[in-house]
Amino acid sequence: MTSLTGKRVLVTGGCGSIGSHLVHEVLSEDPEIIRVLDTDEEGLFKLQKSLGDDAPVRYLLGDIRDKNRLELAMENIDVVFHAAALKHVTLNEYNPFETVQTNVEGTQNVIQVALDEEVESFVAVSTDKASNPTSVMGATKLLSERLVIAANTYKGDRETRFGCVRFGNVLASSGSVVPLFMEQIRSGGPVTVTDPEMTRFIMPISEAAELVLDAHERMTSGEVFVLKMPALQIGTLAETMVEEYAPTYGHSVSSIEIDIIGARPGERVHEKLISADECSAARELEDMFVLLPQIDAPGYEAVNYTNAEHVNGEYTSVDAHLLSENEIIELIGSIDGLPK
């Protein structure tokens, strides 16, 4: 039995890569019901078909920009996992007004309704791009984190716990590089690489979802949990995938060209999960780091981290364990629907 057993759970953005896996993970904890809120009608239909009619899940069309819809969706809810966001870095650079409306104002809506409904706990899913951000998406996700942490100061006598989970790229998530490279290899190339020296944190979706639930179990109030992740170099990923999968699709390795197209707007060469400015508040746990709240967050229990080691330096993708070619192939082989 966990803290989710018998609970009523809402997952915003529940048709997305992380959100849908969170739904599956929460289901395994035997909740009373899960409500999935998403703007994606087709995604809701597919999720319903995959889970079956007997699953204790309700599928709700709605946008987190619509506070009235949120009030109905969150009625009598105990736990909120907030995964709804606009996440494509370059698209967000060209559409910053829309990004702010969803990632900032939408998050504020979800928080305000959660306070009104006096939910027990609230976990927001964030990104490495929120650490010392250089993009519109990263900046809005950092502000989203700050809103969630500050919500602890607005709760008065409520017992709601607010916290965040931050991690990097999720393998084979919507719009990610592995499915793109695979399709380009299938078509005979070229494989388009922004910068072969770029590094990115990477982890399987299932592992990310599991660690979100683990962070929910540990959370007191006001923490940002930062998941430990390996990283890979984009050039190594492209070369490894060409060598491994070109023959699978009837192409010779030498026939697949790799084109260097340059970084896109908002992209940086290396990602950060913990910046230099955040180190003083960072503590290291076994499978994750935790950023302690820097404001007075009622409900926060510092004693939980008394024996945790201080983090002395930035946690960046260039300094993380870089996956070898064999490790990359093993990781890609774990993705359902891709060649083994």
UniProtKB/TrEMBL annotation:
InterPro entries: NAD(P)-bd_dom_sf, Polysac_CapD-like, Polysaccharide_Synthase-Rel. Residues 9-291 form the Polysaccharide biosynthesis protein CapD-like domain. Belongs to the polysaccharide synthase family. This is Polysaccharide biosynthesis protein CapD. It comes from Natrialba magadii (strain ATCC 43099 / DSM 3394 / CCM 3739 / CIP 104546 / IAM 13178 / JCM 8861 / NBRC 102185 / NCIMB 2190 / MS3) (Natronobacterium magadii). The gene is capD.
